[in-house]
Amino acid sequence: MDARFNLFENDVANRFTQRFANAGLVIHRSSLPRSTQELVSLRASQINGCGWCVDMHTKEAAAAGESAVRLHLVATWRESTVFTEAERAALALAEEGSRLADAHAGVSDETWEQVRTHYDDDQVAALVCLVALINAANRLAVIVHQKGGSYEAGQFAAAAG
């Protein structure tokens, strides 16, 4: 199935996505480790069924030096030994923050406590904003049926300025 609508060719959508990319740049420039950013984005995108974002974040993570083993195991991080305790806390937050409708309490106190144990205030802020931003990005791409497979690492770097 082809995309329903090209967000990159519409003036309103293009202006919105430019600002969206600039919001992402704040997170990208934060002290939250880049590998954690990509793993969190990948996991949320897997949950939300966003092929475009899974493609993007897999390729961006690989280009930044992430191992194929870790990328392949993100979907099963609880049953894997390749993630640090800090990464596991971030992945739990990504899952619980992405599945709000599935859990009436949202992010559990246990997960929040683990996040606070491993990340400072600026990193927590970046992590919370990242979970919100990737979920919004997933919705944009899924609604218009933007398919994965054509993304190239660094494709939007210049646009985010």
From TrEMBL:
Gene3D superfamilies: AhpD-like. Keywords: Oxidoreductase, Peroxidase. GO terms for molecular function: peroxiredoxin activity. Residues 23-96 form the Carboxymuconolactone decarboxylase-like domain. Pfam families: CMD. This is Alkylhydroperoxidase. The lineage of its organism: Bacteria, Bacillati, Actinomycetota, Actinomycetes, Kitasatosporales.
